[in-house]
Design brief:
Layout (H helix, E strand, L loop, with lengths): L5 H6 L5 E3 L9 H9 L4 E4 L5 H14 L4 E6 L12 H10 L1 H7 L14 H11 L3 E5 L5 H10 L2 E6 L2 H9 L4 E5 L5 E2 L14 H11 L4 E4 L5 H9 L4 E4 L1 H4 L8 H8 L6 E4 L7 E4 L2 H5 L11 H15 L22 H15 L2
Parallel strand pairs: 1-9, 2-3, 3-4, 4-5, 5-6, 6-8, 8-9
Antiparallel strand pairs: 7-11, 10-11
Helix pairs in contact: 2-3, 3-6, 10-15
The protein binds flavin mononucleotide.
Flavin mononucleotide binds next to strand 9 and helix 11.
Length: about 350
Amino acid sequence: MWNSTKITQLLGIKYPILQGPMGVGYSTAALLASVSNAGGLGSYGAYTLTPEEILEADKSIKAATNKPYNINLWVNDVDKTLANFPQEKIEKIKQIYKPYFDELGIPLPDLSSDIPSKFEKQVEVLFEIKPAVFSFIFGIPSQEILKESRRLGIKTVGGATTLEEALALEDAQVDAIVASGFEAGGHRPSFLRPAQDSFTGLFTLLQQLKAKIKTPIIAAGGITDAKGIAAALTLGADAVQLGTAFMVTDQSGAHPIHKEVLFSGALNHTTVSKSLTGRMGRMVSNRISEGVPFETEVLPFPLQTKLIAPLRVAALAQNRTDMISFWSGQNNNSLKHHDADELMQELIKETGNLIK
Ligand SMILES: Cc1cc2nc3c(=O)[nH]c(=O)nc-3n(C[C@H](O)[C@H](O)[C@H](O)COP(=O)(O)O)c2cc1C
């Protein structure tokens, strides 16, 4: 049966279909539960949350499902360059964005580089919550964290954008690896080479991993329907992870305008840019991603996100969609499901029709 794979056995789920974790307001207990309750694995992106907020979110998750689910964190959630980033450089970089702020009639925000990492404290509450799965990107947690996860029976899943990263994750003995193709929506979670030197498409990445890796592989990037699932499984993936297709459903926390843009029938060309958050991410091209060339120095992550945050709020309020980062994978022209349950049911039924 197509739906019995190393991943379904490992995670105790019925179908090898994972909802990609999404951060900052996109994840909801309702979306996670739709996917987990249908026999896949729902996920919750928690990297920006305080430990208390994670505990709160987990209460709503546990009220919505008693099936396995995944909580996702970013191992490296603050760029190393941030700590000593000179204030005068912050002020200089802010000026690059002044024309956009002026256009929306709002002031540039005051910014300070004093932003501590949350990761270690977040992991502590994760160990209290004990989700079935702890997935992470932007690096590999310490051996102590991985060992404690194993002791608590929490399966660990790391994200890789290159074969090198997958080999490093396998060396660290994670339970499964997400092969994150260049097509994928959201941040490019590279951690060994720079993101711009880690642009492998999913087809190639899957074949590279399959040849060298024994750890079960989850394919992510550009999969939106049963044909995509069948293709990834045929290339050796043990499961698939869909982000954009779930992000546009009613159950996701994405802004209604974001969903509207992706369902609008417009071409919605995507690009990768660090100009909105400080790290490379795939989004629908917009005036800022086009207006700030790749070579331009931006603020370290997450300070650049803090610079852009008020601009985003004002742009949404003024319906200036040309200045907003609408995250999206490349494969965004044939999205059709508004309901996550319907999407799951169709994926399950049609994949079963395509492969046995
Ligand atoms: C808005 C958005 C936010 C995301 N945030 C995260 C995140 O916090 N952690 C993570 O591991 N992946 C994150 N991703 C990646 C997804 O989990 C998934 O791997 C990716 O979207 C798959 O590619 P697709 O969008 O082409 O389906 C995000 C994706 C999107 C679209």
